[in-house]
Hints:
By secondary structure, this protein is α/β, with parallel strands linked by helices.
Amino acid sequence: MIRRALEAALRRTARQYPVVTLTGPRQSGKTTLVRAAFPRHEYASLEDPDRRAFALEDPRGFLGQFAGPVILDEVQRAPDLFSYVQTRVDEDDRPGRYILSGSQNFLLLKSVSQSLAGRCAILHLLPFSLSELEGRRPLRIESIGRELPGKRKTPAAGVIDTLFRGFYPRIHDKNLDPQRWLRDYYQTYVERDVREIVNVGDIETFGRFVRLCAGRNGQLLNLTSLANDCGVTHTTARRWVSILEASFLVVLLRPHHRNFSKRLIKTPKLYFLDTGLLCYLLRIRGPDDLRSHASRGGVFESFVLAELLKNSFHRTEEPDLYFWRDSTGHEIDLLIERGRSLTPVEIKSGETVAGDFFAGLHFWRDLVRNPAAPVALIYAGDRSFRRGGVTVYRWSDL
């Protein structure tokens, strides 16, 4: 089994809270992780029709059958359980009594917030990171722009093959054809999960909406244009984007402003979190197609952003990642905020570093009037180095 970076934090959290909830997209490895992290806990999956019927009809009796701590998987399928868990925890709040996991995060987190606020820690598990697949530590976010990583082995798979395959665990564990598996994954998500999360009358229209979102990956989110192209209302488009975000299929990257309120109201960029799924939705049928595809740059940006998000989530940290753009069109792909420190990062899908890759970073240094400000470039090549005061990282350093 490939070790997950979140495992140590998951165990540590269970020693502090009576209830721990693990969320993440379907098939991100949640069940495998919780069973490996807590081998002595009893286990019950609410996907099992008999167990689910028991939990729905007699929640008190269902919980009473467990003598010790228990893992309740896909627990959102029996929402009344949360109130009974709350009652039991209020009577006995020993740490680690209940480990809850589920894929329908919209329903799961709603139930947790209603019944278990203050009693429950929430952790997020995304699909494999590159560092997990390589069995090494990830690049420290706080070091980006400040220091080069140590010497690392070059991954067996090249950047294009890695992006096309994506990072869902089952594809790697079973060495499956990524396109075939992702097709089934996507159909299951649309036809089952979406119907249960919200009443979507026309599944075909929703599917078209998801593919239109994929075509806008890495771009500013224009809900009006998206709604018009799909033939739905602006309100429906906003709600459907929220569903994709709650399902951890997409992330909205906010623009950075010194005024925090502006970050929340200004238009974000939309990115898909798994490059394999993004390639499937874009109808990219193989690595060679990706190599020359017009969306290659956006797919690579998604990869970099997703790796940094995994890095943060799997350390139980809130990621402070933004993009920056001024009124004259100058732009920074990624801005990492840590306290008062801001580190701009340019992301380039080229495998050879060109001089114009650094233009935005030099403009940023002039803007902040600090020629020695830490700045970074992440590209698709195979060598890390420093050039003109810029720390350049190869893709496989993440």
